[in-house]
Amino acid sequence: xxxxxxxxxIRDFQRVPAHIVAQAAELQPAILADVAGxxxxxxxxxxxxxxxxxxxxxxxxxxxxxxDNLMIxxxxxxxxxxxxxxxxxxxxxxxxxxxxxxxxxxxxxGIAGVVMDGACRDSLEIDExxxxxxxxxxxxxxxxxxxxxxxxxPVSIGGVTVHPGDFVIGDGDGVVVVEREKIxxxxxxxxxxxxxxxxxxxxxxGGETAxxxxxxxxxxxxxxxEGETL
Length: 230
What we know:
With 230 residues, the chain is an alpha/beta fold. The chain is built from seven helices and eleven strands. The chain has helices at 18-24, 29-35, 70-78, 100-109, 123-129, 183-205, 214-220; strands spanning 47-48, 55-63, 83-98, 113-120, 133-135, 137-138, 150-151, 155-157, 160-162, 167-171, 174-178. β3, α4 (100-109) and β4 (113-120) form a beta-alpha-beta unit. Its cofactor is a divalent metal cation. Pfam families: RraA-like.
């Protein structure tokens, strides 16, 4: 009997094409989450180290044991320019998985940013670098480098499953992940939503503040009786 066991490190996987990444990067994560069916948004505990930080790219997935960053070092050596390191650190906040040295290497190599379900450190220096990092917080305690993990496998961060090569985008609102196979088809829908929202905001500024759908929704919810209005 033979087994088809996957290796801990999967070196090759398909990525979202660079021209699609460039188009999608112009959008807000909120817009993409809406047109993706209001799904794909990572739990808000994983947030930008500074609200101004933004990132967009293809997911390079890493799974580590809590507090150990051995596999992140391996991932930095393997990732391609434009990748985003997406690290399943099990939500641990007792020690930092990455700091200035590793972030400097990521920036130099063209890695588009870091999203980790874990903590970082050296936050002031990372802020000065203006390198986009999304984490569950900070901790001055350093990690160990002793325990194996996995690279290039699906991971779960903040309630969202991320496959290698998926599209990842983040801003001050948080992080959204869209499946590699779906992102291109969502771009026209996202463009329409941007246009529609701009028109609605313009109408509000012109005095049309009433939400035309509200009464019907309230009747459907049983809050208003048939024929009744606010």
